[in-house]
TrEMBL record:
Residue ranges of domain Retroviral polymerase SH3-like in the record: 49-104
Organism this protein belongs to: Tanacetum cinerariifolium
The name this protein goes by in its record: Retrovirus-related Pol polyprotein from transposon TNT 1-94
Pfam family, one: SH3_retrovirus
Superkingdom: Eukaryota
Length: 111
């Protein structure tokens, strides 16, 4: 959706600053600013299908424990992920997420 363009740009900048090496210094922009190598183990594919744990609502005994959403970025304030929830149509920040990046890649292979 058009409303997620700002999220896409912010996520691209976040990823680029941690992955592209500046030839002159042989370091990433993150290394030049912070003086240490970035941890990239938590990076995920933008738009990947994911399942955030439903930990904010009272779900009862038989309620859904998770929702379906799309990964749209990283939190600026904490080590959480930003997720566009398909059910509520809202952006949420949470650390409790299961990612399904392979289904997005399989979709791209078919088309």
């Amino acid at each position: 959706p058009l409303i997620l363009w700002a999220e896409a740009i912010a996520t691209a900048c976040f990823t680029q600053n941690r992955s592209i090496i500046r030839r002159r210094f042989n370091k990433t922009p993150y290394e030049l600013i912070n003086g240490r190598k970035p941890d990239i183990s938590f990076l995920h594919v933008f738009g990947a299908l994911c399942y955030p744990k439903n930990d904010r609502e009272d779900i009862g005994k038989i309620g859904a424990k998770g929702d379906i959403g799309f990964f749209i970025g990283y939190s600026a304030d904490s080590c959480a992920y930003r997720i566009h929830n398909r059910r509520t149509k809202k952006i949420m920040e949470t650390m409790n997420v299961l990612f399904d990046e392979l289904s997005a890649m399989a979709f791209e292979q078919r088309s």
